[in-house]
Amino acid sequence: MGDLAETVNNRAPYNFRFDYQFDRNGDPLNAYCRSDHYMYARYGIPVTFFSANARYRDYHTVSDEPQYVAYNRMTKIGEYIRDYVSAVANLDHRPLVDKPKPDPFATCKQ
Predict the structure, then answer these.
(1) By Cβ atoms counted within 10 A, which residue in 19, 38, 98, 100 is the most buried?
(2) Is 21 within a domain?
C-alpha cells in the first residue's frame, strides 16, 4: 500500500514529502505500537498511517489555537487522502499482504 500512496502522491498537485520516521525500529515515541491502526496491523490487515506533523511546539497544549492551523495545507492533505482511498477502493485486486500474518498477541515491536 506504500507504493500506491507514493504513486498518488506523485500526481499533481500533491508531491508531499513523506517522512517514514514512524516506521523505523526504535522510534522513541513508539508511535506505531500506540496507534489506532496497529490494532488492525497486528492481525495482518494492511494499514496506511498518515500524520500531518503533530510535533509542532503548541500541539495539544493550551496555546494550540485555530489560527495556527494551516487550512490550505489541511485541505490539500484531505484531497490527497480522498484520492488515495479512491485508488485503494478501485484496485482490481485485494491489497497485497506480503508478510506472514503476525501473532496478534505478541508484544508490538516498532
Answers:
(1) 38
(2) yes
Tell me how far apart the alpha carbons of residues 89 and 41 are, in angstroms, rounded to a whole number: 18
Domain extent for 53: 2-89
> Which residues, including other chains, have CB under 8 Å from residue 17's CB and lie 6 or more apart?
none
| Cα three-residue angle 51-13-68, rounded to 5 degrees | 45
Query: Is residue 55 a part of any domain in this protein?
Result: yes
Residue 94 falls inside a structural domain = no
Q: What is the pLDDT of residues 13-39, one digit of tens each?
A: 999 988 888 777 887 778 788 888 889
Residue 107 lies in a domain: no
At 105, the pLDDT band (50, 70, 90 cuts) reads very high
* Sequence-distant (≥ 6) Cβ neighbours of residue 44 within 8 angstroms: 97, 99, 101, 102
